[in-house]
Structures are given as C-alpha cells and as structure tokens.
Amino acid sequence: MGPARGRRATSALDEPARLVLFDIDGTLFLTSDPLVGRATLDAIEEVWGLRLPPDAIGKVDHPGQTAQRITRLVLEAAGVDDEQIDAGLTRWCVLVSDRYLGLLAESDTSHWQAAPGAAETLEELSRRTRIVLMTGNPEPIARARMERLGLARFFQEGQGAFGCDAEDRVDLIRDARERAGGVPADQTWAVGDTPRDVEGAHAAGIHCVGITLGRFDRDDLRDADAIVGRFTDLLGALVLV
C-alpha cells in the first residue's frame, strides 16, 4: 500500500518539504537494542545510586519519549523527586552515552536491520531537501547507530536534535529548525512511527508522516498528515522541489 493522507491533511501540505526530521527507533532502525536499556539503568545507578530491575523501563510509558523523559519517568516511579532528578540529568546524559558506546564496542551488531530501502531513499531525499536526525536518543548513541547501519553519511554533524538536548519533542523540533537556518514550520516534516511523534510534530506546528514499521499501525497513526507502510513510499508522501 502506498502513501495515504491522514485525517489532518490540508492544502498546506502542498508546501515543499525543505527540512525532514527523522526518528530512529522503528523508523530508520528496526532491531530491538537491549544495550540502550542496560546503559540507561547503569547510568541511573551511577548518578542516583539506584539499582533498578531490568524491566524498569518497560513499566513506564516510553514509546516515542526522549531519553531524558524516559529516565525521569523511571526515577519518578522509583520515588525520586524532581529536584533530585533535575540535579543529575546532565551527568546522566554523559554517562549513558559513554556506557552505551562501551557496550556497543564489545557487541556484534551484524543482525541489526535498517528500514528496507532506507539508504536509497535517503540518497534521493538528500539531493532534493535537507534531512536531519530528530530523535529521543542522545546524540552519541544516535550517530553510533547510524554508523553501524551504514546511514551516517546522510546526517550532517551539527544538525538535527537529540534526546539530551531537551526533554520535550517540541523543543527538539524548534532546535532542529533553528540549526537548519530557521526553516519555516509549514515547510518542515517529521517522520516517525509512534503517536507521540505525530502529537509532538503538530504541537510544534510542523507536518508529520507516520510510518508503520514499528509497533503502531495506520489506525494508531491516523492523526498524521500522511501515512506510509514502506520507507521507499516517503518519496511519494513528501512534496519535494
């Protein structure tokens, strides 16, 4: 099935996409990665002195959240107050990335899968618009994953926005637009696989393509401006110059 317009689609969607913001998990990267959870909990123990069970992240509402927000939810569930959380988040961001990169260096990721057709589609998109990462992952984790998947060349350093830049997706979208030179909201699109990706995009005043490569289906993503089932369908869903 090719691209379909969601129920929010309007004539404003005919504006060309000058900036496209890509989520990672469930969008570009389709393999479950337990290293992130392990690094998250190890860094929590280092900063706040809490040894939490391996399922602590799975017990909070984490899909589509930023790394900082997930950590806050996990800590709140463990009884840590906001003042203590705020005091440790900056240090946690450094430690979680360091821990993840250390674990990754010792891991075989030959089974990792990018979205089918991702490299070819990103190649074509990069010729016709600006593409950047906008993800809940901390930047070192995001870029290491792209490197392992062979997609790093498409995403310029110093561009995009990441899960330790801000806790809220609306702020990440603002940061990504500013770093791209202030691209207007109506010419900016996000691509993501969760309802929270869609909600965050619309709250920030930009458009969103929902992609059904993760755990959510077309009905879950019905509020997106467009919905695709294959990565290659993005070329038909976006208005390109």
Describe the structure.
By secondary structure, this protein is an alpha/beta fold. It has two domains: 4-31 and 112-237, HAD superfamily/HAD-like (Rossmann fold), CATH 3.40.50.1000; 34-105. It is 40% helix and 10% strand. It has eight helices and six strands. The chain has helices at 34-48, 67-77, 82-105, 118-128, 139-149, 169-179, 195-203, 234-237, and strands at residues 4-5, 19-22, 130-133, 188-192, 207-211, 226-228. The chain has a six-stranded mixed sheet, with helices on both faces. Helix 1 crosses helix 3 and helix 3 runs parallel beside helix 5.
The first-to-last residue Cα distance is 24 Å
- The biggest beta sheet, please? 6 strands, mixed
Indicate the overall shape: globular
> How many domains in all?
2
Low-confidence stretches: none
Q: What is the number of E strands?
A: 6
CATH topology of the largest domain: Rossmann fold
Level of helix content?
25-40%
Strand residue content: 5-15%
Q: H/E order of the elements?
A: EEHHHHEHHEHEEH
Radius of gyration: 17 Å
| Widest sheet: strand ordering | 1-6-5-4-2-3
